[in-house]
Amino acid sequence: MLKNIDLEQIITIAKDAGDVIMEIYQKDFDVDYKEDSSPLTIADLKSNELICSRLQKLYPNIPIISEENREVEYSVRKKWEYYWCIDPIDGTKEFVKRNGEFTVNIALIHIDRPVLGVVYAPVLNDMYSAKEGIGAFKNTQKLPLEVNEDKENTITIIASKSHLNEETKECIDELTKGIENRVFISKGSSLKLCMVAEGKADIYPRLAPTMEWDTAAADAIVRLSGKMTYQYGSNKKLLYNKENLLNPWFIVR
């Protein structure tokens, strides 16, 4: 199945969704709020419609999970071998703030792991992409772009702009104990995972709630750049298509 997926087609879909989003981003727009108090805009819905319709046309036999679609019962989806996992705008809070740090996320999951991912930041015009068998890229450059050769003395930690809680601060202190030079970066959306894949950051701890569609695409970039996303407090990898689509706390390194 995976060899039949054209990564360039998925990149084009993400770019086209980005164009739709940018049309709305540059105008006034209303913000609604879902039951969990997370924001929702017309850009989320239009991006979702474009991505889902295009994927269904190209790959009608591959089911879809998206943040903006009705959740599929576990009894049905646990039988899936492959499925698309989509966040039409990851970082809607950043979109609403107009700080440019939001992304279009499209991932292909094989059973419980991401094997293809596209993360597009339309304001930044950065395209991250990855597919098993060919590796991970930022635009056309193979990842990682940078390697920290002095992790014993210098470490770069990236954290969430919207979810920097006390647990995360304590975790960062523990992870960096004894390291003289600690550099901190704050960033929105799945760009945090991509920056670890890229080599601009060494570690990203996430001790706050995320859903599978928040991480899937960028996690593919991470894994295929030679890094990994681990469940917090263990060496177990982050898993997908769980009965509960809520991710556990995790660390990317």
Chart the SSEs and their pairings.
Elements (H helix, E strand, L loop, with lengths): L6 H19 L6 E2 L5 E2 L1 H17 L5 E3 L7 H4 L4 E9 L1 H6 L5 E8 L2 E9 L4 E6 L3 E4 L2 E2 L11 E7 L5 H10 L5 E7 L3 H8 L5 E3 L5 H13 L4 E3 L18 E3 L1
3D structure, described in words:
With 253 residues, the protein is an alpha+beta fold. The chain folds into two domains: 2-142, Fructose-1,6-Bisphosphatase, subunit A, domain 1 (Fructose-1,6-Bisphosphatase, Chain A, domain 1); 154-252, D-Maltodextrin-Binding Protein, domain 2 (3-Layer(aba) Sandwich). The chain has helices at 7-25, 42-58, 74-77, 92-97, 166-175, 191-198, 212-224, and strands at residues 32-33, 39-40, 64-66, 82-90, 103-110, 113-121, 126-131, 135-138, 141-142, 154-160, 181-187, 204-206, 229-231, 250-252. The protein has a seven-stranded mixed β-sheet, with helices on both faces. A three-stranded antiparallel β-sheet has the order 12-14-13, sandwiched between helices. A two-stranded antiparallel sheet has the order 1-2. Helix 5 (166-175) links the parallel strand 10 (154-160) and strand 11 (181-187). Helix 1 (7-25) packs antiparallel against helix 2 (42-58) and helix 6 (191-198) runs parallel beside helix 7.
